Known about the structure:
about 625 residues, about 15% strand, alpha/beta, flat
Amino acid sequence: MDAASGRHASPALPAPQTRQAIEAEIARYSNYLIDLRTRLNTFASISVLPPEVLSEVFMHTAGAGGRSTAQSDRWGIYMESLTRPYSWIRVSHVCRHWRAVALNCPALWGNLTVTKQREWMEEVLGRSKKAPLYVSVDISMSLPMGLSATFYPRVNSPQEDSLASILSHTARIRSLSLGSKGPLSERILRLLDGPAPLLETLTMRFETGSHICNNEQDHIHKLLHPETSRLRQLHLHSVLLQWNNTSLPQLTHLTVTCKPHQVTVQVHVEAFLRAIEQMSVLEELVVQSALTAPIDQGEVPTNLVQASLPRLRYLRVLENTRNTISLLSHMTTPSLARLFVEIDGDTKTLSGELFAALATKTPSLGTFATLVVTIARFTLHGIHIQAFRKGCVNRETRPDSQPELEVCFGRLEPDTVITNACESLPICDVHFLTVSGRSLLRSTLLALFKRTKKVVELNVTQCADYDVLPGVLVDRRRGHKHRHSEGNAYHYILPHLRSLSLSLCYFGARGDPYEYELEPSERLADGLIDSYIQRYEYGAEIEQLHIVHPVNLSRREVDRLKEVVRVVEWDGTIDFDEQESDSLYHSEDGYDDGLYDDDVWGYEYGGMDMFDDMDYDLHHFF
């Protein structure tokens, strides 16, 4: 049938020719419809955007030009690139206009996650033209079970072929992230020799340091030669470097990490201090298990070089006690704004020296308004202290910002840590205090509360010792006798406390494990009522009580508390100490991320030829 006249095609033509004529007519009208839709799209609001703005949107979507959408790995924790690194390309297939804008934006194609498809890598390189490159690659080796990459013969993989193609453009690379589970091939090492005049960020990550040899050291040092003058960020993970022969005065960010007990790639603390002494513009420093463990753990050297780092803003140290003290004591950091310290190993013998070293770094951190203390006995991180300059709002347990000071201890008694922390750390101006721990000792709480006299809000979470807190709240000491009064004045602990919040705290024990009957003796509610009454009578009233997810609490106890406390807020929940349901760990709310839809490319909306388009044809998603 003729679409214009409504008449059938002439029956005089043979059937094959008639069929071909109809198919040609269908194709003609289909192309006409596509052209109409394309013209209609030009009137859409999104089409008003200039190509420059649309290109910027695409670059943010793709994480191009250093706009990484993945979590930063500057703390030494390896985070892979997106599992499907080029999934963002689907946005370029929505319509012809978007496709044209994407292909005419070389910077959009500068983010290269190296895959095994060399043809695809060369295509992306061509699209990037002369734009700077941001290269990320993780070279994995498939080895027979039980064999180590250290001794297994080296075989070039397709991924290395792709990497070699990209490294031939070293002069264009601005950021390079290279990870390997085995020794690098000689071809890759030669390509790493440089020069790399645009290189600003270098990340090298090896699965194990046992395979590092002098040959690899030499090539890494060539990559760090003086011609790489724009290098600002260096992140080394299990990489052996000759720090005595390394001069990088232009660095602003340095990360050096190893896996525990990788002695072959660790560096002596003295050599490391001499290396960073030259980095006067350093702003961020991360050191994790990278320093050689000393033979004598009980003595801290005092004749080390003093490294002056006037611009250092962030310092993160995860080392043994001796090396931590050496670093903190021999670095001058007047601009330090954030400090994280995690102690690996026993701290009993050097606890005093450790806190003294911490104290030297706190003046520049400012005045702390919030303090969070977490005590988890018999765990790897037994005691966790966080201090914030920012205060809490809406009775939150901690601010929504990062802590200015964070310290983790493992093998140390809570009383020892709290006592030393109270003596060394500037926490006397804290107004918001959170204490978390299933087992909280009276001596620990007393030591902490006596140092934080200005606290107005106290949050206690996950406490199972329901008989400890009330007794601590009514602790008082005899003060000076008033001139016109009889007897002595008493000063209660936390004299400015006005609000107490209890979250996930036990209010007592349950009598029968199969019945919801509560044990009548030693109830937290009874102790709280007594302490609130006593403090009110002596002029140290706690005005508010907030209860969130209490354990083994009765409604009758809530009513009794409301009769005594000025303001009682309860979230209405009652939990009992029974085994949690498996439903807590399984969610029924699944979601479809759209990666496996039939039409992820959007070809139906733009008329692109899927059979001739390399984006669609290549399996470039690993």
